[in-house]
Amino acid sequence: MGQKGSSGLFRAVSAFGVVGFVRFLEGYYIVLITKRRKMADIGGHAIYKIEDTNMIYIPNDSVRITHPDEARYLRIFQNVDLSSNFYFSYSYDLSHSLQYNLTVLRMPLEMLKSETTQTHQESFDIFEDEGLITQGGSGR
């Protein structure tokens, strides 16, 4: 930790990704993936398991205003074991099911484009089903 470069900047930490940001009483922390293990390949997409993480306080320590409960909150948060059963991929959407992702992958590009433009062009009237009159509409 702390390799100095020729530009005067130094590397604080190497990371494979960002888990997220968390804020406690003294400010924000960034949670980084510092160790990963490749677990699988799905359709040519690598799936990784988080092996280790690191929390870094974002504001400079020189401007840190200490709070007596900060250490307790940090301990509680660090009890969440992000290295057990947390997975990620740089190119595969793990938030959808395999079936959904395969359906999207098999869809012809033309269908995806037309589907995307249709959803952006279509408009709907939330009052239409209620039989209410809206501007430009007649109601039922």
UniProtKB/TrEMBL annotation:
Its main location: membrane. One of its GO terms (cellular component) is endomembrane system. The chain crosses the membrane at residues 12-32. The keyword Aminoacyl-tRNA synthetase does not apply. One of its GO terms (biological process) is phosphatidylinositol dephosphorylation. GO terms for molecular function: phosphatidylinositol-3,5-bisphosphate 5-phosphatase activity. It is found in: Endomembrane system. The keyword Hydrolase applies. Keywords: Hydrolase, Membrane, Transmembrane, Transmembrane helix. Residues 16-105 form the SAC domain. PANTHER family: POLYPHOSPHOINOSITIDE PHOSPHATASE. This is FIG4 phosphoinositide 5-phosphatase. The gene is FIG4.
